[in-house]
């Protein structure tokens, strides 16, 4: 389909649920975020989860924008296997605490639980390196959307499987650890 290429897919080793984005500019801010994460564990995470991993089901796909023929982000839908809202409660309360601390900006009323599968920001442009070396400049390129209509039809109810969520991590964008996942600044 138009605009679809293998470079759009998330690296399987980096599949995750994003709760929010932090801009941590120094070691003090990283430490503040790590400390806050641990306080959240003590204050409400253990109570909501019973100190146990949460079993989630990943099934179906959806897109972020208005027109499926012009998709930028395609994601797998995530929900608790037991039908409860415990994951949503944990996610929303974590974001609430981080916003209140000043480490995060409030973007939405509640966290959209999803696992990004395809994203046009991942697209590799084969002409990019050549252009950058020729001009000596980095070239900001407009996102090239893809037609997700057939993917949405084919995988609308696709069952990806179940997974045990057992940690919340402060992951560093544009990084990797030995396992292939993002380098982690802190976790609970």
Automatic annotation (TrEMBL):
* GO cellular component assignments: nucleus
Residue ranges spanning the membrane: these are none
Q: Could you name the domain of life of the organism this protein comes from?
A: Eukaryota
List, for all copies, the residue spans of the domain called A-kinase anchor protein 7-like phosphoesterase. 3-186
Q: What Pfam family is a match, any one?
A: AKAP7_NLS
GO terms under biological process: DNA alkylation repair; regulation of DNA-templated transcription
Protein's name according to its UniProt entry: ASCC1 protein
Per the UniProt record, the source organism is: Machaerirhynchus nigripectus
The gene from which this protein is expressed is: Ascc1
